[in-house]
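Hi V.,

You were right to ask for the full record rather than a summary. Here it is.
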Amino acid sequence: MKTKVMVSAIDQGLLSAFNFGLNLLLIKFWTPAMFGVYSILFTLGFVFISLQNALINTPYSVLIPARKNPDALRRALSQGNLMFLVSLALLCLLLQLLPGFNQSYASPLLITLFFVVRLLREYLRCRWSAELDLMPVMWADMAFVMLFALGGAWLWWQQGWGDFSLNQLLWLLCMSQLLSLCYLLAKEVPLLRPLGWRRLARVYAPVWQQSRWSLVGVTTTEIQNRGYIFVVGLLFGSAMVGFIQAGRVFFGPLNIITSAWTRVAKPTLARLNAEGNQGAFFRLVRQGLLGFTLFNLLFGLTLWLFWPLMDRHLFSHEYHGVGWVTLQWAIVTLLFHLRATSSAAIQAQNRFKPLAKATLWGAAFALTTLAIIGLTHGGEWVVLSVILGEAVAFGYIIKLLQPQPPLPLSPRVTHDP
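Predicted structure:
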């Protein structure tokens, strides 16, 4: 377990450094309005990934490790993911044809490709991590970063970062990710052998009984965590979105570290729960909560000590006052890490319905606060709505976190039909 978490942490650390560096470059050379548009697209990608997690990735990471013969479910989820990506591509293209969704920053086809490739990569990373085969994932991520760096260096040599357009950035991200996934895609092909519609529906039907509640949960979580971006964009414009997201630049990559832990911990917790080993189950959860608390406190202290230097050299005059927003994001990040850790335990217990209720309460508080802030025109305070939503959801989940009887999954889910 420790070795696999370390490999996953190294992999996620690489991606964290990449995202951090890219965001700093964009903040340095792009206007807040341009960075705001990119932030909106990046956030939409996270929203789509959350939907994919509910329908495909989370069932894979929880159910596959708990099954003795997972081949049929493995193929069903792989084919289900393909249908999800095709549906998403068609929906994105159709929406961008509507008058209200017209924009001049990037082509509709390229935006759609960006979403599809990003979700394809996320599924493959999740699938291999759930099988606890982490080295191919790390090699693919290293290839992605290297390919992007080479492409970015060539564009910088040709024209400089000041003239780097959103179209060029999306194209470079898409091509780098696709090329880095060649090996994982080749291994995925055997799983796409058709199961037949009836058998596919029969295999996925019991999964849907829980994933539908997971879908409710991620929908409310996205409203709670990212709804502010779209409200701010509508009420205050993309420049304010860029300002708010600039304050998050130090913390966004840290959330990938949470993914490193949950990728390995979730299948491990699912196996411990299925075996009835409640002592080891809750010990692992406590270790995660304590570790993320200490990590956030140490990171926050470091950021506070070096803030005058970073504020002077990293942000232009257009980001004056971003320190207050950064402080709010520090609190959000701590609460998010604690909620994500405890949520992984609830998911491993296959308790998606009560988890969905926790996020419903969090979303309700977040939306209420966001509405008040919107009415008072206090754009720099919108992160407060995320803080309240996270705090309410985390408090509810802690109440849910209690020992469960072993083998909670129904026979229909744990055995192939």
